[in-house]
Write a sequence for this structure.
């Protein structure tokens, strides 16, 4: 039940700090160390490449998971949109391991890939929120999100849960292989959970931003580099699906290769600047769009903030920035939908689980 919340989406956004904490506990062994099932560790150790298969928001989480698993555990990863995989299957490595990311565990596009790769004899894992769902039953192994039921059509807490579990998968896989990991993920997840709470407590600020930037516009752009790029894709998807504003997420450097032609006087451009190594570059992209009349909203992070940034996120570990950078974008899309009189929890044309291919 949504209780005192006006919408499931708001309730589910508020649940995110608790979900991150719960995941951290759920993946702990008796000694309090992060762990995965022995069989899943074995499958990860035996694989020479991981193929992540997903759709929509889950695909966006997969893009982040790829970075985690490659950077922390050193296992090569490819991420594929499930609907494309069937007819555009890449050449597979010798020992592929498939990881299906699906909140509902019912997405038909993802299931058809599962059926296909199982028939080829490859091992499969489903990362899902729903124990007993189709993809969970049909895969060799299941990783659970522990996010609790997600009712709003727009996915919020499942996304943060996916990112958190993928970080744990990368971390445990690295340790299993005897790689040194120079941070304590449990501790960093706890810090991120608190940071999410702090941002949720600033929701009036996001309502104000939605009011200023999105109340009347017909389009909006989201830009970021590195991990911020993937979060930009997710922010744009949230805005599209619940407020019906045409929104696009871009890699900061790609905008000038065509799309910048769409920037007009007052076009909202949300820029994420949480990545230290590319902070100057993304700020350069903001200057480029401002010179063409854009209305910029820079969301940066403590330690990287500059005068004029519209919102400054609490500092978290460099790899966990997606967990916090997505929160203002979720809130901004929520308020944009409210201000535009849209049905937040049940947007037009959308279903919570998509069981047709
Ligand atoms: C976006 C959204 C969809 C789903 C997609 C995949 O907010 O809800 O993009 O993420 O339909 O669904 P699952 O994860 O259930 O396979």
């Amino acid at each position: 039940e949504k209780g005192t919340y006006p919408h499931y989406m708001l309730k589910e956004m508020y649940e995110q700090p608790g979900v991150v904490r719960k995941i951290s506990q759920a993946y702990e062994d008796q000694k309090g160390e992060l762990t995965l099932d022995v069989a899943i560790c074995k499958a990860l150790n035996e694989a020479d490449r991981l193929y992540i298969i997903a759709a929509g928001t889950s695909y966006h989480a997969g893009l982040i998971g790829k970075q985690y698993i490659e950077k922390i555990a050193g296992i090569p990863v490819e991420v594929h949109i499930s609907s494309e995989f069937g007819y555009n299957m890449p050449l597979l490595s010798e020992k592929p391991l498939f990881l299906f990311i699906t909140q509902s565990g019912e997405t038909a596009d993802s299931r058809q890939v599962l059926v296909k790769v199982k028939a080829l004899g490859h091992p499969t894992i489903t990362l899902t929120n729903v124990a007993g769902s189709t993809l969970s039953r049909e895969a060799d192994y299941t990783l659970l999100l522990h996010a609790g039921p997600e009712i709003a059509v727009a996915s919020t807490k499942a996304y943060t849960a996916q990112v958190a579990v993928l970080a744990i998968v990368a971390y445990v896989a690295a340790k299993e292989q005897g790689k040194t990991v120079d941070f304590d993920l449990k501790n960093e997840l706890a810090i991120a959970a608190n940071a999410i709470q702090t941002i949720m407590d600033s929701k009036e600020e996001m309502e104000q931003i939605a009011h200023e930037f999105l109340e009347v516009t017909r389009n909006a752009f989201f830009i970021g580099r590195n991990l911020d790029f993937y979060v930009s894709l997710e922010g744009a998807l949230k805005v599209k699906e619940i407020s019906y504003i045409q929104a696009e997420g871009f890699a900061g450097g790609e905008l000038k290769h065509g799309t910048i032609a769409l920037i007009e006087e007052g076009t909202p451009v949300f820029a994420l600047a949480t990545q230290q190594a590319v902070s100057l570059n993304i700020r350069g992209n903001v200057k480029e769009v401002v010179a063409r009349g854009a209305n910029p909203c820079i969301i940066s992070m403590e330690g990287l903030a500059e005068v004029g940034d519209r919102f400054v996120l609490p500092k978290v570990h460099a790899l966990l920035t997606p967990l916090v950078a997505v929160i203002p974008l979720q809130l901004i899309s929520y308020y944009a939908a409210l201000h535009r009189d849209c049905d937040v929890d049940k947007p037009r044309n959308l279903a919570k689980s998509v069981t047709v291919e």
User: Anything to note?
Assistant: The mean pLDDT is 97. The chain is about 45% helix and 15% strand. The pocket of fructose -6-phosphate is lined by residues 55-58, 102-104, 107, 110, 154-155, 237, 241, 353-354 (CB under 6 Å).
